[in-house]
Amino acid sequence: MDVSFIIPHKGREEMLLATLQSIFRLQRHEQQLEVVIVSQNSSTTDALEQLIAKHPIQLIRHQGNTISEMRNVGVTHATGDYLAFLDADVELSPNWLVVMLETMTQRPHTILVSAHQIEGPNAPPLEKIRTALSNAELDCSVTFLPGRNLFLKRETFARLGGFPEHLVTCEDYYFTERASRLGELFYTSAASYVHLGEDKVYKEMFYKEIWRGQSNLQSIKGRSIPMREWPSFVVPPALLALLICAIASLLLGLWPATVASLILFAIPVAAYSWRLKRLVGEAVSLSKVVQFYSMFFPARAIGTLSGALKEIKTTSHS
């Protein structure tokens, strides 16, 4: 059985090199590996050229509009019976491939597998928070898997019709939720990866979350939304509205309204922060946890709103 690794890529090549090196360090039995890189970069460094000359790597130049489109293009160039979709900034544990294959064999109803995230060396508080959130549910069946490392059979990918090319972000929510209708999604702690490009600075995270939120509403179309996912759509805009109300009331000198808005803003932030603090334990201070949600929710709301406005504008011109 052959395994094809599909990697969409743009920009940072040093992280791509680390990803590739981890792939070719993987433990394996008789499996033949190939890597298909779908890159938007117009040039290639000598280091990458040397890896391509040494290993079975295809480099496809493609200016895709979305990550989904680039992944789907990669599959058309792949020959493997199994497909491994990776981001271009992950470092896999040496046992990753063995665990993926064993999990699919030992759990006959499992159709999609992902390894759990671990922190990199000297991880700052924000990376620890992101890692803890990613690992909130482990060694169990889940309804969603992050797209940074996904392993499935090629026939499953064909049944799903590929990744949703109309979504700029949230494509992994859409793809893996549809996959959950066909079989089990399993998030295992037996193998791991380091997300080299994980958020490490709060300010950068804020702007990234605005970008990530732009396809929130579009991702709802065509899939069922579990009850536990609804707060992620309702809470961010509600908190942004309260924050705007607090600022406006402050400028107008309406102190009771200002205080009331801030209290209502603080209640869900405190509730989410309490849950997250239980996940991270003593590794991250409570102040850093509160800072995370105080920035995360408004950013997601801004991203969702901007995405909705873009959708309205696009629809009105079509």
Summarize the structure.
With 318 residues, this protein is of the alpha/beta class.
Describe this structure in words.
With 318 residues, the chain is an alpha/beta fold. It has two domains: 2-200, Spore Coat Polysaccharide Biosynthesis Protein SpsA, Chain A (Alpha-Beta Complex); 227-316, no CATH class. The protein is 49% helix and 18% strand. The protein has helices at residues 13-23, 46-54, 67-77, 96-106, 125-134, 154-160, 171-179, 202-212, 231-251, 255-280, 286-316; strands spanning 2-9, 32-39, 57-61, 82-86, 90-92, 110-118, 140-142, 149-153, 184-195. The strands form two sheets. It has a five-stranded mixed beta sheet. Strands 5, 6, 7 and 9 form a four-stranded mixed beta sheet that branches. Helix 2 links the parallel strand 2 (32-39) and strand 3 (57-61). Helix 8 packs parallel to helix 11 and helix 9 packs antiparallel against helix 10. The protein is elongated.
What is the topology, as strand order, of the major beta sheet?
A: 3-2-1-4-8
Text of the CATH class of the largest domain: Alpha Beta
Strand content: 15-25%
Q: In CATH terms, what is the architecture of the largest domain?
A: Alpha-Beta Complex
- Say which CATH homologous superfamily of the largest domain is assigned: Spore Coat Polysaccharide Biosynthesis Protein SpsA, Chain A
User: Could you say which structural class the secondary elements and strand pairing correspond to?
Assistant: alpha/beta
Shape descriptor reads elongated
Percent range for helical residues? 40-55%
Strand segment tally: 9
The number of helical runs is 11
> Could you tell me the mean pLDDT?
90
InterPro entries: Glyco_trans_2-like, Nucleotide-diphossugar_trans
Domain Glycosyltransferase 2-like: 4-156
Organism: Neiella marina
Transmembrane segments: 230-251, 257-274
